[in-house]
Design brief:
This protein is an alpha+beta fold and about 210 residues long. Helix content is about 15%, strand content about 30%. It contains three helices and ten strands, in the order αββββββββββαα. The chain has helices at about 1-20, 180-185, 195-200; strands at about 75-80, 95-100, 105-110, 115-120, 125-130, 135-140, 145-150, 155-160, 165-170, 180. The strands form two sheets. Strands 1-2-9-4-7 form a five-stranded antiparallel beta sheet, covered by helices on one side. A five-stranded antiparallel beta sheet has the order 6-5-8-3-10.
Length: about 210
């Protein structure tokens, strides 16, 4: 168990080093730190800087424990981006933890502002992404293995085992953004017109 924890820590540090500055999707910082003022009404590309900060602005313990997966999808994403760690502002990197119940699914979605790389903490997953040429690139991965999802491409993860699974995901953006395909199309406000969805999916408006 201790060895697994140590391996996880090493891999997370490696992932952060690889995806941060050289390929950051966000603008380069122009100062040492620009801790986000999440309460400011001023709108900029990112967040305005707080006038003062403390160590708590660079700390978050929300990834330490498994998330609750007793929902319809059997998965939970715990974000660790600039909204949880204001010190990430302008630094072009963030993390998330994804927990999966047996058979749980993180449904098809995209991150419009970031590439994602995941490291499996435990369990086994079927993962994949779809290219703009409609080619599915998929693989089964297990504890200690890594898989990459290119920026903005539709992708998914599904627990293919009988035990819980979890991954740490890293992004080259302080706020990668997430668009779940089904939720985007069917729960937007205002709603996408039924005749658009029925034509796109070749189904009747009643089925929509």
């Amino acid at each position: 168990m201790a060895a697994a924890v140590k391996l996880s820590a090493v891999m997370i540090m490696l992932v952060l080093t690889i995806i941060s500055y050289p390929v950051s999707a966000d603008p380069e910082p122009l100062q040492d730190v620009c801790v986000a003022d999440l309460t400011s009404a001023v709108k900029v590309n990112g967040f305005v800087c707080k006038s003062s900060f403390s160590a708590s602005d660079f700390f978050f313990n929300g990834l330490a424990k498994p998330g609750l997966t007793n929902n319809t999808l059997g998965s939970l994403v715990t974000q660790s981006n600039v909204n949880q760690i204001p010190g990430l502002n302008t630094l072009g990197v963030s993390l998330a933890r994804i927990d999966y119940a047996p058979g749980g699914l993180n449904p098809p979605h995209t991150h419009p502002r970031a590439t994602e790389i995941i490291f499996v903490l435990y369990g086994e997953l079927d993962v994949g992404f779809i290219t703009t040429a409609n080619v599915l690139v998929s693989k089964s991965i297990k504890q200690g293995e890594v898989f990459l999802f290119p920026k903005a491409l539709v992708h998914f993860q599904k627990n293919n085992g009988k035990e819980p699974a979890a991954v740490i995901a890293a992004f080259n953006s302080q706020l990668a953004g997430t668009q779940a395909i089904a939720a985007t199309l069917f729960t937007s406000t205002p709603p996408v017109p039924d005749n658009v969805l029925s034509k796109a999916f070749q189904i009747s408006t009643e089925e929509v």
